[in-house]
Design goal:
Blueprint lengths: L16 H12 L12 H20 L1 H5 L8 H26 L5 H9 L17 H18 L8 H29 L3 H20 L11 H6 L7 H18 L10 E3 L4 E3 L5 H11 L3 H14 L1 H25 L1
Antiparallel strand pairs: 1-2
The chain binds fe (ii) ion (2 copies).
């Protein structure tokens, strides 16, 4: 309906067709879009949603593992876990900052999270029952995060793509520390090996769900690919993850809990069984095993941190007043 050659034809959002074409041409030429550039409203909204959800996932993701810091089996394990959980907090902060460049405030995003309105990765709504879960999370959850995030280093939006470069370096340490925990347990006593297998059994399917619905059911997929926010589809990334992870499980003698898992010579990848999408949607909609606890824990941490925010604001106000006073004195 806009292709009648009319100059200045408008789309539904009131954006000029020529503007959208120019924007798409920049994307196609692999130019980075920066915060002060003009961009379609849909592009801005998609990024705010995606970066916001990503930031929340980092922050909520600190909870299941934070739960084990005081119970880590050795000082070395404790130091590694502490560093990892702090990294996740840092990832959240970069990402909130990246989202803020698009005109949304961190306070607003935090409020939405605490009100239970914002989405975050549903993997963090599962409980961490044993120490082996810390291994499984690092290996599988951070492993899946890397698959998702490496292509985001080439995302068309400059601040997001640059944040991802450092984030990915840290994720790779997270994945290795998790895998190394699993390797140690798998080579330990029979109880330890069983504990590792049990953690793999519980985390495998939720990890596959981290890539989101199948491409045929994915709402935002095509447009995000055209805008080069996404570079690969959900199913492509999931397949890569399975292909990379199965040999790692074999190497440490653990079994992937999927009777349908089979190497497919033709596609040079593994075929795997059906994902329980009812479970996925149940957890996404707030009814997973730990949804309520996670938000309650975030609210508590937010309330307990109020004095830090007040002190930081009071300090900033004092500095501003001092700078103002010395500016006046200098005049
Ligand atoms: Fe992270
Ligand atoms: Fe991580």
């Amino acid at each position: 309906m806009y292709s009648q050659g009319l100059i200045g034809a408008q789309t539904e959002t009131g954006e000029d067709e020529a503007f959208l074409e120019r924007f798409q041409a920049r994307i196609d030429a692999e130019e980075k879009i920066e915060p002060t550039d003009d961009m379609p409203e849909g592009y801005r909204r998609t990024l705010i949603r995606q970066i916001g959800q990503h930031a929340h996932s980092e922050i909520v993701g600190m909870l299941p593992e934070g739960n084990w810091i005081t119970r880590a089996p050795t000082l070395k394990r404790k130091a590694a876990l502490l560093a990892k959980v702090q990294d996740e907090g840092g990832h959240g902060l970069y990402l909130y900052s990246a989202a803020e460049t698009l005109g949304v405030s961190r306070e607003q995003m935090t409020e939405e999270l605490l009100a239970g309105k914002a989405k975050y990765s549903s993997i963090f709504n599962y409980p961490t029952l044993t120490w082996a879960d810390i291994g499984a999370i690092g290996w599988l959850v951070d492993g899946a995060a890397i698959m998702n995030q490496i292509p985001l280093c080439r995302c068309s939006y400059g601040p997001y793509s640059r944040a991802m470069i450092r984030v990915c370096k840290e994720e790779s340490f997270h994945q290795r520390q998790g895998y190394e925990i699993m390797m140690t347990l798998a080579r330990g006593s029979s109880e330890q090996k069983e504990m590792a297998q049990d953690a793999l059994n519980r985390w495998w399917w939720p990890s596959l769900m981290m890539f989101g619905p199948h491409d045929t059911d994915s709402v935002h997929g095509d447009q995000s690919m055209r805008w080069k926010i996404k570079r690969f589809s959900n199913d492509e990334l999931r397949q890569r993850f399975v292909n990379a992870t199965v040999p790692q499980a074999e190497f440490i003698g653990l079994e992937i809990p999927d009777p349908d898992l089979k190497w497919n010579e033709e596609k040079q990848g593994y075929d795997f069984g059906p994902i329980d999408w009812d479970e996925f949607w149940r957890v996404v909609r707030g009814n997973g095993p730990m949804n309520r606890e996670r938000i309650a824990a975030r609210r508590k941490a937010h309330e307990e941190g109020a004095w830090v925010r007040e002190a930081a604001n009071a300090h900033a106000a004092k500095r501003k007043a001092r700078a103002e006073a010395s500016r006046i004195a200098a005049e």
